Amino acid sequence: MPPNLSIEQSTTGILEPQEADTIDGGLVKDIEQLKHAKDRKLQIVWRNVIIFVYANYSALYGLYLLCTTWMKWQTLVMMYLGGFGITVGAHRLWAHRAYKAKLPMRIMLMIFNTMSFQNPIYIWVRDHRVHHKFSETDADPHNAMRGFFFSHVGWLLVRKHPDVITKGKTVDLSDLKADPVVMFQLKHYGVLMYTLTFILPTIIPMICWGETMENAWYFCTVFRWYFILNGTWCINSVCHLFGNKPYDKSYNPGENHAFSGVTIGECYHNYHHVFPWDYKAAELGGSRNNISAAVIEFFAKIGWAYDMKTVSPDIIRSRVLRTGDGTHPVWGWGDKDQTKEEIESAVIVNNNNNDVKK
Q: Could you say which DSSP state residue 101 is in?
């Protein structure tokens, strides 16, 4: 889930413990009501419009510099650090609690997250949990039913729909309030964000490996930030409007493998909305174009990441056969001559011990 540009725009100003949603007799009825849009009068946030117009043209110039000048390899490596702060950190660790991380890893991910300038972890997670709970309704901050542009970037250019603010108060954030790393970032976000997003990414390449000031600002800083933003935005727009649905055809999000590089492994979105607690955010892990899962698996090997949640092949197969659209590469029914009995008897290889099960 992508950012807002200001804390003021994304919160009512009071960060209090949240209560469970019991309005109108239950969540299903609530969502059905929220699907019928009301009070959609747009209030443009001109400050955000100006910032994004400047960022867009500056990022394009940064891309031009990448194509026409010699960039140091260290400069290119910096591109993805902020992205991992979103995918590995804010999304899989803090929003979905798909795994646990020791203090050094949480501090590192908090730093990377701040580099991405997508709001504090606390705000990001709150909005993302609302997005999952009320997906594709007016309580969803980037409701894809309002069109591609709105779900990609337009939602950041206008004030939030009142339902987003109202439902945001129903999300439980007690786990974040108990994490000192998250609360430290929230308390000092202004200083941390300007330092880690704009100042250091410009100064460090110039001092440490001799990058030009022009390359450092337009590419290392502005293009890097805008590239990460667009990768996050693509998840909310492209992945919510296009793609096949092998796990649940009733869900709006789809699988978009072509965007794996841009989203560093967050493009398997039909799977993610069906099984949001899986640390891989996909059926397959780091061995299959899922860079963020590979990062988590690396830190698991050195003991910094642990208690990684995942879904068993049997549960995945059962869900695919019950609700999928038939496009799953193993349990789909692309072969029109294949019987349901043949599909259900497919051989499963357990990647952990290479045992073959029926």
A: E
Q: pLDDT per residue over 110-155, tens digit each? A: 999 999 999 999 999 999 999 999 999 999 999 999 999 999 999 9
The DSSP line for 163-216 is HHHHHHTTS--HHHHT-HHHHHHHHTHHHHHIIIIIIHHHHHHHHHH---HHHI
* DSSP secondary structure letter of residue 159: P
Q: How far apart are CA 160 and CA 119, in angstroms?
A: 15
Cα gap 62→181, rounded to integer Å: 33
Q: How many Cβ atoms are within 10 Å of 161's Cβ, its own excluded? A: 24
Question: What b/e readout covers 332-357, taking b as 16+ CB neighbours within 10 angstroms?
Answer: bbeeeeeeeeebeeeebeeeeeeeee
- Is 255 in contact with 246 (CB distance < 8 Å)? yes
CA angle 90, 95, 96 (to 5 degrees): 125
Closest Cα partner for 275 from 302, 255, 259?
Answer: 255
Q: Are 229 and 302 in contact (CB under 8 A)?
A: no
Q: Averaged over 33-61, what is the pLDDT? A: 83
Phi and psi at 159, nearest 5°, equal -65, 150
Six token digits for residue 225: 């930030």
Give the residue from 260, 229, 234, 263 showing the smallest Cα distance to 115. 229
Please check whether residue 172 is in contact with residue 39, taking contact to mean a CB–CB distance below 8 angstroms.
no
Supply the Cα-derived Rg of the chain in whole angstroms: 21
Which 3 state secondary structure label does DSSP give 324? coil
CB 262 within 8 A of CB 230: yes
**Residue 260: what pLDDT?**
83
Q: What CA–CA distance (Å, rounded) separates 87 from 102?
A: 17
Phi-psi region of 213 (alpha: psi -120 to 50; beta: other; left: phi over 0): alpha
Each residue of 160-198: pLDDT tens digit?
Answer: 999 999 999 999 999 999 999 999 999 999 999 999 999
Q: Which long-range contacts (CB under 8 A, 24 or more apart) does 210-213 make?
A: 210/72, 211/71, 211/72, 211/75, 212/69
